[in-house]
Amino acid sequence: MARRSINITINGLGRRLKVSQLLIFNRVMETGSLLRAANDLQMTQPAVTKVVQELEYCFEGELFSRTNRGVVPTDLGLLVARRIKSLLAELRLLADEVNDFRGGVTGHVVVGTLISASAHLLPSAIAALKRDAPGVLVTVREGPTVELFSALATGDLDIVVGRLPESELPISNAFPLSHFSLFDDQLCVVAGKPHADGLSAVTSLPELEGVPWILPPPESPMRLTADRLFRTSGLPFPVDAIESLSMLTNIGLLLEAPRVALMPHRVARQFVGMGLLHVLDLPAIGTFGSVGYSVRAGRDLTPAGQSLIARLRQVAGTVAETLHD
């Protein structure tokens, strides 16, 4: 595409860009297909193609490369996409604030959850929010640590709840994040309740040599803790190991056969209370870390997001008390 000899200015963009174009562009980015985007938006493919061409003219360069399998963003397309995500997030914030101002407890909050929050903290906070404000839509997304924090930095998520990072995450071209601790948790070793009898006599980690384990995958921050625990206890790395952060999968595996896993104490207690897991009677295993929530620095949360954080703090106060029982 031939480039024009004018500079792009905010006034020029303001006159040429429409919100509907940004929504269509964002959907093409998410689907990687002009046809799928058109179907999702109930438009024709030529209409979607025309919008993309208008945006390419506006930004003076190709935003997508066409392939046999759809479209892939160019470097310019990736640059534009990052900013458009932020703009759409701000528009969602505006819509929520206007709705809240008009007197209805409404809105939409998109929250990412890590393993330490998915069993008790976040579900309890969401339940409390929905009791008071049933009109608030809550969307929950799970994923690896880096993926969730990257989505938070670009505005795809409003909040991430779970274990707070101990160091700066490798998130490039992103906005800074702010982290808030709610409580500290400890690690424990758990087994499935049906197989607890065979492990009830275990009183030290070295006695678990030869026992199958479920471990966090190498890219998980918790894996460093697990590796360090094996080294300091003199326990060799297990030959029979499964790497998984899927809570449902791990619970199923622990119920299926004799196998042990590391788990945050608060999460374990939730499943012990359900009669699914048993916590091995071992000396202090180590610190899991701080559990809390993260938001994008310098960005105001929607009223719905602020309400969820208020419930997170309420639930965390109860959690902190029970951890010392």
From TrEMBL:
Keyword Nuclease included in the entry's annotation: no
Matches recorded under InterPro entries: HTH-type_LysR_regulators, LysR_HTH_N, LysR_subst-bd, WH-like_DNA-bd_sf, WH_DNA-bd_sf
Keywords (A to Z) from UniProt: DNA-binding, Transcription, Transcription regulation
Pfam families registered for this protein in UniProt: HTH_1 (PF00126), LysR_substrate (PF03466)
GO function term, MF aspect, one: DNA binding
GO terms under cellular component: cytosol
Similarity-based family: Belongs to the LysR transcriptional regulatory family.
UniProt protein name: LysR family transcriptional regulator
Source species: Azospirillum lipoferum
